Amino acid sequence: MRKFLNLIMLLLVAISFLNCKDARSIKNQQVQDKIDRQNNTEPTSEKVKNTMFYYVTATSGLSVRRQPDINAEKISTLDYGTPVEIIEETDHTFQVKEGIKTIDGKWVLIYSKEITTIKGYAFDGFLTKENPMSYRLSNADLKFIRSYNEESDFDLDNYLTLELISKKTYEELKKNQKNGITIREDTLEIKKNNGKIDIPTDQGVVSLIDINERDMGDVSYHYVGAIDNLNTHVIRGDYIGYSEHLLINKITARKDTLTEKPIISPNWKKMVTASIDGQTLEPTDLYVYDIDKDNYTRRLSVSFQKWFHSYEDNSIFWINKDEFCMKVMSLQLGENEGFKEHYHQYVKIKVL
Fold it and tell me: First-to-last CA distance in the chain?
């Protein structure tokens, strides 16, 4: 009798396990069906049995379409180096001319979830099994830091959120950027005379003198303009291999050194500047300031560990009062592979 009861118990446990497994399978299929409906893709008959990761090699990005046709609606564009899964193959062949080279391939159904979930058809002539960006940044990589406010032990998530975005998203946000008017550039307002710039303030004249001495190093000052809302003059100091920006208050003569030109949020409440060592390849140092009327105070300084930002003009910009975007590159990638435009990645940062 006891053996019979134990047998029934084992049977009940097995049935319960199978029901749970079936429920999970149904749920997973429902999620997949939802993705299919969102992307409006139709499956083909040739499913790939052993899913493998492939990587995008198109330097300008790989188009993903709703159907295996060059004229079909484009769902998205995957950046160079993006990992994807090929989940189905089609018999739709295609050919691309790239300069004098011809690339043959076919349309495949791919799935990617690196930044957002994307499922659609792409040309496999621009996919490879070998990762062309082995040092590609992940969201986790963005958060590695050397120090915060010159301290090494703190939780970055309490101060900033960082997330990767696609190049397409970055460029769309850039078109609608919300930077406050920062520097009223007027290089002729205050002129340099014999290597000296005299900056007028209510407390007297602040003089900046060029240096051209072997022992002390070279420095050359250039008047850039003014930030009227902050009552400050802006002067750029060019040193060997790098530059700094000096902010001199027109009233108090207060002088602050910023690593780069400040970028102000659209509500004039925050200011951000970023720097890297111009003489060696170093990761980015990021500085965030709070603005109160015509006064500003530094809220935080963060020294990152795995990436550095682009020095292009206007590559850092605010998209609302709390968030800004940056164009960045993996430090290891720059050190090992050099600097190529398609190696860049894109980051959205929120100040909490």
Answer: 66
Measured over the CA atoms of residue 95, residue 96, residue 97 and residue 99, the dihedral's sign is negative
The three-point CA angle 212-215-216 to 5° equals 60
Give me 206's structure tokens: 């602040």
Q: What residues contact 113, with CB distance under 8 A and at least 6 apart?
A: none
* Tens digits of residue pLDDT in 23-79: 444 444 544 444 444 445 554 445 656 668 999 999 999 999 999 999 999 999 999
Q: CA-to-CA distance for 89 and 58, rounded, in angstroms?
A: 19
Helix (H) and strand (E) counts for the chain?
4, 26
At 282, the amino acid letter reads E
DSSP 317: E
Taking the C-alpha atoms of residue 36 and residue 33, their distance in angstroms, rounded to an integer, is 5
Residue type, 197: I
3-state SS string over 242-297?
EEEEEEEECCCCCEEEECCCCEECCCCCEEEEEECCCCCCCCCEEEEEEEECCEEE
Pull the structure tokens for residue 185: 């550039």
Measured distance CA(294)–CA(281) in Å, rounded? 35
Task: Retrieve residue 153's tokens.
Answer: 């032990």
> Hey, what are 101's tokens?
């080279």
DSSP conformational letter for 156: G
Distant-in-sequence, close-in-space partners of 266: CB < 8 Å, separation ≥ 6: 178, 179, 180, 318, 320, 321
Q: Name the β-bridge partners of 145.
A: 304
CA 139 to chain centre: 9
For residue range 151-209, what is the model confidence (pLDDT) as tens digits? Answer: 556 788 889 999 999 999 999 999 988 766 678 887 667 889 999 999 999 999 999 99
